[in-house]
Amino acid sequence: MEQIDDIDLQLLNILHDNSKYTVKELAKMVNLSPSPVFERIKRLENNGYIKKYIALLDAEKLNRGFIVFCNIKLKQHDRNIGNQFVSDIMKIEEVVECYNISGDYDFLMKVSAKDMKHYQDFVFNKLGSVESIGSTQSTFVMSEIKNMYG
Amino acid sequence: MEQIDDIDLQLLNILHDNSKYTVKELAKMVNLSPSPVFERIKRLENNGYIKKYIALLDAEKLNRGFIVFCNIKLKQHDRNIGNQFVSDIMKIEEVVECYNISGDYDFLMKVSAKDMKHYQDFVFNKLGSVESIGSTQSTFVMSEIKNMYG
DNA sequence: TTCTAAATTAGAATAAAATTCTTTAAATAC
DNA sequence: GTATTTAAAGAATTTTATTCTAATTTAGAA
Prior knowledge:
Chains A, B: GO terms for molecular function: sequence-specific DNA binding. The structure is a homodimer of 150-residue chains. Chain A has helices at residues 6-17, 23-29, 34-46, 79-90, 116-126, and strands at residues 50-57, 66-74, 95-101, 107-113, 133-147.
């Protein structure tokens, strides 16, 4: 695996914050000409340092500004139950992130809803029909303080 | 505030997953010519539906694949302590997300480190010097199941 | 140090994409 | 039904991405 240098790291940090700079602009920022910057970015893409480029959307405007962290305990801890849970959760659009975690609970999900009413509906109707779930515990987000991706 | 239609929504969903499509490609996907697609995207940007465009990086390759959710209780619940905490946390690069939450703890942080050793160093040396923190509780991520941004 | 080879860069040339503009069509109001 | 507004298509233009070649730098060996 190729090694990356300081200029690569600069480019990654810049693009992580704003991927719309032109190569000419990037070149000026890192004191190079456009060609090597273009080649460096292609190399970083091909070597997997850059996974993809995405647009960040305004959750509030799209009626998804109500964030809840939802802890999940499975009914039992066998592979089938676990696989079933993962498979079910992947289909639920309100679940934007999900992690298998240490501690009292098995999974931590980040859920994105319009409001409390929507979240309640999500818990009753969506989670309610996921057979593998034993219990849940909701932690509500009152405000977002920091988000390096937002 | 302008209203968005189904095609706008399609464009948002596509760009949220991959912002590198050309307008020509997008036009084909939504069965329009490039011009109206271009104008729609500009409108979505100007109206704030699209906040920004970013590159997603490979955390593992950048030595940041060890994820921990860290719950925080403040020493006291007055405005000064709270503001001091927020100000301190914004400067710590390992903290990639932070939320003010309901429940037993005051804040939930997502922390990104190289490994357990790095995380330990983060807790001792970085969090350890944030005066406003009363107590912490760490939940370790064993695996990422779903991430609509990753 | 000096030579050689490999890698990197700069700058020009080309291809492709974004962006603008004008015309046409469609939808809505009157 | 006509007028008016809005949205779309297609062509023209500008900008950017991408490729190519030559020059420079770097690293290693003699």
